[in-house]
Design brief:
Oligomer: single chain
Number of strands: 8
Strand order of the largest sheet: 1-2-3-4-5
Shape: rod-shaped
Structural class: alpha+beta
Largest sheet: 5 strands, antiparallel
Strand content: 25-35%
Helix content: 25-40%
Length: 138
């Protein structure tokens, strides 16, 4: 006798085997997906911090003096400023906005002298204090 197709019991066995396999695979798959999302945010923050560094360096070439610095940012002569929004998650330099979506933050601006200020940058578990100087390099 020639057979075409599967019996109901064969289909039930295949579904049971697939269900058992998926119950072991799914939790591991969720962990991989969460880890991938975290790595994506870290990479995006690294790119944003690189852009932030470049924009700040460019902006500082056009400034000759630091007028004031506080938790909201730093103000320079010639109506220029670097402003912090959303607790350091978004930084405005001129008309550009840099968004830090992961765990990175930029905050804690402090005036050091008439041409120098500092800020703190958090990226992951690291807190970094960066010293910035206004004016073109000489």
């Amino acid at each position: 006798m020639k057979r075409s197709g599967f019996t109901l019991i064969e289909l039930m066995i295949v579904i049971a085997v697939l269900s058992i396999a998926m119950s072991y695979i799914f939790p591991g798959l969720q962990a991989v997906i969460l880890e991938e999302k975290h790595h994506t945010k870290v990479l995006r923050d690294a790119a944003s911090l690189t852009t932030l560094y470049g924009l700040m360096s460019t902006e500082l070439k056009f400034c000759s003096a630091v007028e004031s610095a506080d938790e909201k940012g730093v103000r320079f002569d010639q109506n220029r400023a670097i402003i912090v929004h959303d607790g350091g998650r978004r930084i405005q330099i001129g008309k550009r906005h840099i968004r830090l979506d992961g765990g990175a933050r930029c905050w804690g601006f402090e005036k050091v002298d008439d041409r120098t200020f500092s800020t703190q940058i958090k990226n992951g578990h690291e807190n970094i204090r960066v010293i910035w100087r206004t004016g073109a390099e000489r």
